[in-house]
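Lab manual, section 2.4: Encoding a predicted structure.

Procedure: take the sequence of the chain (658 residues), apply the prediction step described in section 2.3, and record the output as structure tokens. A sample record is shown.
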Amino acid sequence: MIKTMYYLNTLDTGTALFAAILIGIAFGFFLERAGFSSSRKLSGVFYFKDMAVIKVMFTAVITAAIGLSCLISFGFISLDNIYLMPTVYGAHIVGGLIFGIGFAMGGWCPGTAAAGVACGKIDAIIFLLGTVIGSVIFNELFAFIKPLYQAGQSGVVLVYDSLKMSRNGFVLLLTLIAIIMFWLCEWLEKKRQLPIVSNNSVVLKIMSVLLLALSLGLNFTSSKTAAAQLSDTSSSEAQLLESIDKAQDHIEPEELAQRIIQGQDIIVVDVRPADEYNKFHIRNAMNIPLEALHQELDSFKNKSMIILYSNGMTHPAQARDSLYRSGFTNVYLLTDGLNGFIDRCLKPISLRNEPLSEDMDLKVDNWRSYFLASETMPKSATPQASTSQEPLVDANWLEKNLGKPSIKIIDLRSQPEYNTGHIPGSLALSVENLRTDINGIGSMLQPADMLARHMSLMGIASDDAVIFIYGDRVHDATLAGMALERLGHKNYAILNGGFAIWKASNKLLTTDLPTVIASKYQAANYTDEFTADSQTVLKYVQNKKAVIIDVRPADYYNGTKSDEARAGHVPGAINRPFSEDIVKTNDIQQFKSVEQLQTAYAQIIPTKETKVIVHCRTGHQASQTFFVLVRLLGYTNVLWYDAGWSEWAAKQELPIKK
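Recorded output:
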């Protein structure tokens, strides 16, 4: 099976570099042999004086099309292994026009210009220099032309899908077009007595017949393959029935209990309704509705053991059959369902009819301790909520504590809004002042030493309680909270409802600016272990041992909208938009109740100690989800991917899914 370097995530390795050098050498060699190191020859096609470019380009296109289709049809490669450029109509139309005009005027394209430079052509050097300058100008003007750059984003669009044709049928059509163009070029060259790439009509006839035979053969093969797949389906049905008959598709409750306790790589799925799941479920089990199984389990297809259970076995068996027909061969049923698991693994020894062996007695005790104990809160690298300050405060509490030296109030609205009226004693701060560019990624939270200087300038001491006041964006307050988390400063809270709740409560406002005495902020002896990088996220994408939550709006998650070069989401990530944690009443935005949030997140995170990674585009919105999980709900193993989708989309070697 051929695996491309994109599929294997090895684009940044020495092997990929070596392969690129070899391919580049071969590419340059054949460009030169084709005469494409001459701008006169290249531009001749625009004046119908030299048809070599058309012949070579159509030869390349049809060779690639037939070759790739052969590899796909015979199962050597999958389209999933290949990076396909998304279609952006606005950018492609304008870019194509610029490219065409530049090609006609300059006589070069970037690849042939490189070959020209290697041959010492002055015009090629000037052309490439212009390309570099144009790239710099594009980068500097990107903020202004970004709407055009993103206009008409349509994801990956395949021509044969748009034409409602099969892939091999489209290859046949493309082959016919190529053959017509070859003969048209031949006729034009003879008629106008142009330089001829090959004046041997016999060769052209043989090549035409060969190309046509190959493309027709592909279509015949695809028909045979479809029939074979139908036969395979019948065979797989027989295999399924055989496995059911021999109970090979079952896993016994005792075996499941041992596998879970030993931490084996298994996926346990509870297909019951959410209310039943919330009352009791097998520890570490995911709750996925029957109708969502195919979508949610796609990333686990044939990679880990998937165990389905309900109270009994009817619904899991139906789901198993459906998944099996979709190609899942790693799905098993829990024998006798949850009822059997409780009866055989969790039933007290004193209530059993039959005596157990000493070894089984010990196992039952272990199982009961593990599966029936209240969820523990082990020590974690994730910062824990401080006991000295509740994570949310209300307007009445804040009013009673105004003026206390140990309480610092930070207003995160814009400076003009702050100037028109603010809570007495509050200081203005823009969260953007807490962010910077790190390793080429913008809007990253600053390092601890820089954040400590901000705290010093605002007169905040390491033992102060800090209260954040947000305007129209709750996540401004949670991002500011992340700055304190990075400093190991746990004593902070958010005014639930922000400035709007204070104003609606007719509390005191002022335009007076407070006096600030700079402090010497001493950051705690604390290491930020809650911020994840792309490699950490990739590790959990591959080992499937974390719940990854993409908090961006659904259209960004689905890839229908994007602010980056690539659209989609991290493979295996679950979409829960950050906005779903907020309720808005009369322009007052507040967090939903803890009970509502607990119920919602219990649907997607098995336990409080499950590894969780939250991300958005730049960490801003994800900071709100982090706050909800860690500060409000007590989840103990949460990571925050600050660089988020802006970094993930920019790194071509990282996988995406739509």
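Check your result against the sample. Residues 187 and 193 are 10 Å apart (CA to CA).
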